[in-house]
Amino acid sequence: MVSAQSDGKVLVDVQDLKMYFPVTGGILFQRKVADIKAVDGVTFAIKEGETLGLVGESGCGKTTTGRCILQLYKPTAGKVLFEGTDLISLSGGAMRRMRRRMQLIFQDPYGSLNPRMTAGAIVEEPLKVHGLAKGRELKEQASELLRTVGLNPYMADRYPHEFSGGQRQRIGVARALAVRPSFIVCDEPVSALDVSIQAQIINLLGELQEQFHLTYLFIAHDLAVVRHISDRIAVMYLGKIAEVADRKEAYENPLHPYTKALLSAVPIPDPLVEAKRERIILTGDVPSPLNPPPGCSFHPRCPYVMPRCSQVTPELKEVSPGHSVACHLY
User: Fold this and answer.
1) How confident is the model at residue 23, as a pLDDT?
2) DSSP conformation class of 94
3) Are 70 and 185 in contact (CB under 8 A)?
4) 33: left (phi > 0), else alpha (psi -120 to 50), else beta?
5) Please, are residues 221 and 57 in contact by the beta-carbon 8 Å criterion?
6) What pLDDT score does 27 carry?
7) Which residues on neighbouring strands pair with residue 81, listed in sequence order?
């Protein structure tokens, strides 16, 4: 289910975002010897009411990007503008107030819920923290939230181990909705679930987006899931954005060699089409973010590599309306 985009007003604007994790060494005195460049100059914008799918293989920096936007990690450099306010410059109290507007749905429905709290208490907690309800109203709102995500309110007294994986993720969704946010980072919310349950959660997220006018950053590595829910798609490789395009354009006319390789790995149900399709096999391994290659980070694995690729870092440039790519071929 793809959302109906609004008037095109930008809600989240990420500018040249960097997140470097220091590597320390030494026996007695720990000193910084290098940086792991998990996110290295990421720029994109998300409009109100749309879903931006952020895809890439494991370790490319997708989750770190999402957590930097929510200020769960303090970025090394760059700007994160939410409705025009730079989140990085906010004080602790101002950021806590701003957090009501943005929430996170975690990847692991098993590890993200407190096993000592009931489902009702888990959903009630954000309402208590932000002072949105108390007493009887608190219980009523928690019950309504559970009902909204497809759970029976009588389950409120159960503990997380008494639920299935899909039900636990629904509790996580209800918790994210409790403070009535306008922006939600969905960090691979279906990757830990059975395939039969994945479709239910994806459809639920689509319905909630329409009902509550939500904006999503949907992080995933499953291109089929991203195609179903996203309006636009950003492809990430080794801490950088390789390509950003409209959903249809990204799948029908991919430009970056990495995007082409990713899409060639997605199975097609039609055996005749599948038999004629060219499969792009990438050689080598993903370079380490501790020591990324010079120039284009994809050049050691690129089938179209040119001499300048190893010397000059390509900028993310718009090559057609709404379609940007960071590649020397264009």
Assistant:
1) 87
2) H
3) yes
4) alpha
5) yes
6) 72
7) 13, 86
Distance CA(44)–CA(71), nearest Å, equals 17
Contact assessment for residue 254 and residue 261, using Cβ atoms and an 8 Å cutoff: no
Spatial neighbors of 128 by CB under 8 A, at least 6 apart, are 134, 138
Q: Which residue ranges of the chain lie beneath pLDDT 50?
A: 1-6
In angstroms, rounded to a whole number, what is the distance separating the alpha carbons of residues 159 and 96? 28
pLDDT tens for 3-53 read: 444 457 999 999 999 999 988 887 777 788 888 999 999 999 999 999 999
First to last CA, the chain: 32
**Domains along the chain?**
10-325 (3.40.50.300)
Q: Are 265 and 254 in contact (CB under 8 A)?
A: no
Q: What does the alpha-carbon distance between residue 299 and residue 311 come to, in Å, rounded to a whole number? A: 10
2 φ, ψ to 5°?
-105, 135
pTM (two decimals)? 0.90
Tell me how far CA of residue 228 lies from CA of 53, 131, 198, 232, 283, in angstroms.
10, 36, 12, 11, 29
For Cα atoms 259, 265, 267, give the angle at the middle one, nearest 5 degrees: 130
Q: Pseudo-torsion of CA 224, 226, 227, 232, nearest 10°?
A: -160
CB 75 within 8 A of CB 240: no
User: What pLDDT does residue 34 have?
Assistant: 85
Exposed (0-12), middle (13-18) or buried (19+): which is 27, by Cβ within 10 Å?
exposed
| 55: β partners | 220, 235
Q: Number of C-alpha atoms within 13 angstroms, CB side, residue 249?
A: 18
Collapsing DSSP states into helix, strand and coil, what is residue 55?
A: strand
> Under a CB-based contact definition with an 8 Å cutoff, are residues 23 and 36 in contact?
yes
pLDDT at 227: 86
